[in-house]
Write a structure and sequence with these properties.
Shape: globular
Helix content: 25-40%
Strand content: 15-25%
Number of helices: 10
Structural class: alpha+beta
Number of domains: 4
Largest sheet: 5 strands, antiparallel
Radius of gyration: 29 Å
Strand order of the largest sheet: 13-12-11-8-14
Distance between the termini: 64 Å
Length: 462
């Protein structure tokens, strides 16, 4: 959207207002920061005001290299910091850090602008035309974008438990984002290209990882279908990417979480239902014949992250990456302050004798389910006690994996459960045996042709 770029009043014109309001708009995302400052302020003061909202390190970068612009005839033009704001009421900026500040407000008073810095007072001078940003014709020839400089993160004091949890989650995403992996954007965010070259990556956009530069630091160059040039993504944004399923004609899919189909008369696609992809159109959207619905349903590519590619079999084992993802999501849910507060309240009631052991156990399991119900269906398990049992059985084969075992131990700690590795393996084995049980064939309960007692139940499948 083009910025509204006004000019300062001519010398001897109208009086300068006491306070002016300038909207600092992100050129890509459209989010705005509200800046209030004295009427005689310069554009450098607008930059200084915005920098107050940024984290340490980002504020210095913005003051050093940030540019306030407007768009004129399709060309970005930069304002000079020493120029008066005048009657300009909206400016454009770029930068991933700024995109997250939408809705913020900051104010400068007279003391903040009392020292104008370079350029003198400027009254009575003709304001120079804004500098135009020239486009080098060579830039029209494709070349990979330069890797952006690493920025220092603010210092945050965290507990050892939080550090371990964050490290485990970070390792999970770093290991998942590898060269040639197909990824999907889980939530809107700006790419981490150099200042002014970033783009908005929207939920559902898909791309393939072309390059991973220094996996431990976490730089990935990803070619997104929706964008002409590949985009850099920092490790700090890896959690906003998911591993995209290869949804193509003929594959079977299962729904991870409830959502409405994209057909003209959309239907609710419940978590866990399965279907076969019957076609993919030129836009990348798919038609799926779900077992639970009589008619094929359209599923747009922005919803592909809610589908999981499965085999044609009714039941298939959990994969290692799914086991890690499942445990990571449960861990994040159980560590939420609201959940921990409710868990502590239950324990206090139990200690005070308000809850008998059976009632405490039921209440605690219901509290656990508030997190489990949001996670389990995304991995093919129903949101119920039976779904938890089946999940534990499916996790059993991975408990020898150090990463899965480590996440399981941290989950047990968050829940206040004493669960040594041996006990957890036994529990997983028992859950696996229970989940393999099948209801007896109804015909086997009928008396045989010659009369007598019903046939015995079939043994559980080995």
């Amino acid at each position: 959207m083009a910025a509204e770029a006004g000019r300062a009043p001519p010398p001897g014109g109208s009086c300068v207002p006491d306070v002016i309001e300038v909207a600092v708009r992100h050129a890509i995302r459209g989010s705005e920061i509200r800046v209030l400052l004295p009427g005689r302020a310069r554009f450098g003061h607008v930059k200084a005001a915005v920098s107050r909202l940024l984290d340490p390190g980002d504020d210095l970068d913005f003051m050093e290299s940030g540019v306030l612009m407007h768009k004129e005839a399709g060309v970005y033009a930069a304002y000079r910091e020493r120029d008066r704001v005048g009657d300009v009421r909206r400016v454009l900026v770029c930068g991933a850090a700024l995109a997250r500040l939408g809705g913020a407000e900051v104010r400068l008073d007279e003391d903040d602008v009392s020292q104008d810095g370079e350029g003198g007072d400027g009254e009575g001078e003709e304001r120079p035309a804004a500098a135009r940003v020239q486009i080098d014709p060579d830039l029209l020839t494709y070349r990979p974008p330069p890797r952006p400089a690493r920025k220092s993160a603010p210092t945050v004091v965290r507990s050892a438990r939080e550090v371990l949890a964050e490290k485990a989650k970070k390792q999970l995403h770093v290991k998942a984002i590898q060269k040639d992996v197909l990824v999907v954007v889980r939530e809107d965010f700006s790419s981490d290209n150099a200042e002014g070259e970033e783009v908005l990556l929207e939920r559902g956009q898909r791309g393939r990882v072309q390059q991973v530069d220094d996996p431990q630091a976490g730089f990935a160059l990803i070619a997104f279908v929706a964008h002409r040039q590949p985009q850099w993504v920092f490790q700090t944004n890896f959690h906003r990417l998911g591993i995209a399923e290869d949804v193509r004609e003929g594959v079977y899919v299962a729904v991870r979480g409830d959502f409405l189909s994209d057909s003209d008369t959309g239907v609710l696609l419940k978590a866990g239902i399965r279907g076969r992809v019957t076609g993919v159109d030129d836009d990348g959207d798919a038609t799926v014949a779900f077992d639970a619905h009589d008619r094929e349903q359209w599923v747009s590519r922005r919803h592909f992250d809610l589908l999981r590619v499965v085999s044609g079999a009714e039941a298939e084992p959990l994969r290692r990456d799914e086991a890690l993802g499942l445990q990571s999501e449960l861990h994040d849910g159980f560590r939420e302050p609201l959940f921990q507060r409710d868990l502590q309240a239950l324990r206090a009631r139990r200690a005070a004798g308000e809850l008998a052991p059976p009632a405490f156990g039921r209440a605690r399991q219901a509290l656990f389910m508030t997190v489990q119900a949001a996670v389990l269906p995304r991995y093919g398990f129903e949101a119920s006690g039976l779904g938890v049992v089946r999940m534990m059985g499916e996790l059993g084969p991975f408990l020898g994996d150090p990463e899965v075992a480590g996440l399981s131990a941290r989950i047990s700690e968050l829940l206040g459960l004493e669960m040594p590795a041996e006990k957890l393996e036994r529990l997983a084995g028992d859950c696996g045996a229970v989940s393999r049980c099948r209801e007896p064939d109804p015909l086997s309960l009928l008396p045989p042709a010659g009369g007598g007692l019903p046939a015995p139940e079939a043994r559980p499948a080995p």
